[in-house]
Amino acid sequence: MGQGLSCASSSYDHDFFTAVQAGDLQAVDSSLKDDPSLLLRTTIYDRLSALHIAAANGRVEVLSMILDRSVSPDVLNRDKQTPLMLAAMHGKIECVQKLLDSGANILMFDSVNGRTCLHHAAYYGHSDCLRAILSAAKSTHVASSWGFARFVNVSDGTGATPLHLAARQKRPSCVHILVDNGALVCASTGRYGFPGSTPLHLAARGGSLDCIRELLARGADRLQRDSSGRMPYEVALKQNHGECAALLNPSAADPLVWPSALKFISELDSETKALLEAALMEGNREREMKILKGTTDSLTSPAHSDKAFDDDVSEGSDAEFCSICFDRVCTIEVQDCRHQMCAQCTLAVCCHSKPNPTTLFLPSPACPFCRSSISRLVTTKARDTGDQNTTSKPRRFRHCSSEGSSSFKGLSSAVGSFGLMGCGSGRITDSSDMVDKL
């Protein structure tokens, strides 16, 4: 992959490339003063330049020295790979960032599989490099000319997107980053893996439970088939991944899905988003435990819930309990009407009506208390900090009137199913039977 040195055209060139590989800044500087043309030379076979060697080996100081001498950051090796691609392959985040800051082109494709630097970062599981490249894509000409969503979902020569590669290589952190940036969870491959495979098919083939969890939580379709008509469930069974097959079983309860189609969800601050994501994974984890263990007990473990959501609550705390479930502390607040709920109930509000994939624009969900449209969510701590110098307090509802709206009553049932096994049908008996057979 270019991390080593092939033959050089002379011993002098070899000494220079060896110094670059070792990060010997003084020797590199001395060699360039004696012969500046060394910057234009490459190794014989792999056609590696000094910039490639420095990037692949994480020698950021040498890399900076070379770039300061007006060397193009997009020089190509024998496989038409740029220094940025090699740095992403080997997880050299400092070199990746330096090359991006120097204007390296993120839209170049190599000649091996037609992959970009984003493909390489996802394939090798370097999440920090993946974040840096995605961040650069938002701020460079890519977002305006090529389109950020198109870049995230770019296919290589075999029809695989970065998400396909991350799922197949069991890289759950990279899967999470990609789907969070708009990667399509139902995209099909061309020749990569088995034709027509989705990321869920590839995660099932590799037996990665963590990747399957991430994909299901982001709306991956368990019923989608590849070119041979196989569902991810059947792929997992064939590969003898019993636990993966149990989660992918079409007869099992549907997982709770992150409502990414709603505009205000994408505008959440990091703290509020983290609370809601934790609630989502908690609900799906309870569902998963019931499926895998084959239990029919519908009660949530108090200790498990307390650990996840009530760590900061004590007897002396004046925190308000959620007026929907009466079980957890309010952590999320609707900014406009200032009504508060726990994270799980907030997520149930957002997922109460599943997004229609054929609809481009969806109305925001309504507050279950006053029926006003939810345009923004904040954490209660953030709101309390801003209001600590005021005398008035936001309205908090401890009890629900029996005369509430029908939608509120419907929400209560939705929250009930969310707390027990996620947001879906209750066909756990069938799935547990299937687990026993596996």
Secondary structure blueprint with pairings:
Elements: H1 11-22, H2 25-34, H3 50-56, H4 60-67, H5 83-89, H6 93-101, H7 117-123, H8 127-139, H9 141-152, H10 162-168, H11 172-180, H12 199-206, H13 209-217, H14 232-238, H15 242-248, H16 263-266, H17 270-293, H18 302-309, E1 332-334, E2 340-341, H19 343-351, E3 377-379, H20 380-387, H21 406-421, H22 428-437
What's the gyration radius in Å?
Answer: 26 Å
Strand tally:
3
Backbone shape: globular
Q: What integer is the average pLDDT?
A: 79
Question: CATH fold name of the largest domain, please?
Answer: Serine Threonine Protein Phosphatase 5, Tetratricopeptide repeat
Care to describe what's here?
With 438 residues, this protein is an all-alpha fold. The protein folds into three domains: 1-105, Serine Threonine Protein Phosphatase 5, Tetratricopeptide repeat; 106-257, Ankyrin repeat-containing domain (Serine Threonine Protein Phosphatase 5, Tetratricopeptide repeat, Alpha Horseshoe), CATH 1.25.40; 318-389 and 408-422, Herpes Virus-1 (2-Layer Sandwich), CATH 3.30.40.10. 48% of the residues lie in helices and 2% in strands. Strands 2-1-3 form a three-stranded antiparallel β-sheet. A hairpin with a 5-residue loop joins strand 1 and strand 2 (340-341). Helix 1 (11-22) runs antiparallel to helix 2 (25-34), helix 12 packs antiparallel against helix 13 and helix 17 packs across helix 22. The longest helix is centred in the middle third of the chain and has 24 residues, at 270-293. The radius of gyration is 26 Å and the shape is globular. Residues 295-317, 383-413 and 417-438 have low confidence and may be disordered.
